[in-house]
């Protein structure tokens, strides 16, 4: 019967990888992870493009018809829309520095938020998705 010390030594590789081999292995692992993530996002972009081509016009038509229906129902008084509340909520979302008006500073803050979202989420994700979407819309 083998002792625990024998099992630990049996699990050790006979030749330890050198620093150079370890560097290449880590680089290959990171490249594989990045490429597999980018490929997955590209595939999702391609599937999105196919779905847009197949179901886009009917869905867009349905959204427009629902919007028109809501406007007609609001016109006849069946759906009460409080436009002051809608406008206030919309402007509050745009007014990022909470000074009571939408200014150039607010636009800059929105641009910074978009920039942080894109690079925080991962440029490879966005790039891969847009590549797949472009391939799907352009070539299929």
TrEMBL record:
UniProt keywords, alphabetically: Membrane, Transmembrane, Transmembrane helix
Principal location listed in the UniProt entry: membrane
Record's subcellular location: Membrane
A Gene Ontology cellular-component term: membrane
Presence of keyword Transmembrane: yes
Transmembrane intervals: 31-52, 59-78, 113-137
Highest taxon of source: Eukaryota
Keyword Transmembrane attributed: yes
InterPro entries, sorted: FUN14
Family, as annotated: Belongs to the FUN14 family.
Name of the protein this chain belongs to: EF-hand domain-containing protein
